Amino acid sequence: MPEPAGISVLPVRELPEFSPGDDLAGAIARAAPWLADDDVVVVTSKVVAKVEGALVRVDPGADREAARQAAIEGQTVRLVARRGPLRIVQTPQGWVVAAAGIDASNVDQGALVLLPEDSDASARALRERLRALLGVDVAVVVSDTFGRTWREGLTDVAVGSAGIAALTDHRGAVDAHGNRLETTRIAVVDELASAADLVKGKLDGVPVAVVRGLAIARPEVDEGTRPLVRSPADDLFPYGSRDVVPTRSPAAELVPRGGELHAVAAAFRAASTALPEFPVVLRYGGEGDGVVDVHLSDAVTTTTAVNLGALLGAAIVQLHAEGWATRWEPAATAGGTSLVGRLWLGTSAR
Asked: Which residue has the higher pLDDT, 121 or 102?
């Protein structure tokens, strides 16, 4: 029986160590003269950034971590969350990523690598240059390694693309069971980036791979990866804890203990018997134990403030009855879901 048709992922080996000003397309063309029409060339953003000079130089003897933190600050449009030295930020390109995507690995000790300024433009230029050198019509994906907010482990995603639609839209299609798809859009370029990383690896020195055999959807207007950036109107998690909470200091007499969110949720459930429809949302504050943020899904008005005061008071009484020590810290509100305060919990040290 013949093998079924499928997709293959091919590493591009024998590439040099890249420096600012190097001819990336030329190096790929020399190492992979076998490129063919409709191949997808996946290039790690690091080598794109290197040849474009998107680097931060670190002076000999300087504190490299301090330089990295300063670089993160310079690439931050919005601080989404923070825990100790870890910062998740929104970059000028629109990505929400840890450390602004700044990389300190696979680069000499005297430099840090930024994300390319415009990876979509980089992908378009690389695609056109490969066409000129080899006479082939390929798609290009620029990939980078991202963490996931609610899952452990890193995976590669696309931060730039050209010659391929970033999303495959199945909305309105009907499945084999007669169900109409309402929300299904597949991030094809992200899947290609992850597939390519299986042969590129992180320690193997292979920054380029080729995915072959995929039926490419060519976009009428090549928007690159812009369709992947979720608009603020569609963002269900627009505010990180650092956006809206003014302070981070627990009361000195509180000693953190486990189970905070569960205990507070149970206390609010018990307290809300008189106000079953009151829209309170509880979340971990995002830094350390003993921190629970209290949000309102409605705007703060006189009525909601009075209701919250009654509900909070009843919940704190319930928590104290269960042996918890508490401190309430009001916070500023910030549009959409309003953060109205922070509840610190623990065991009294006194």
From this structure: 121
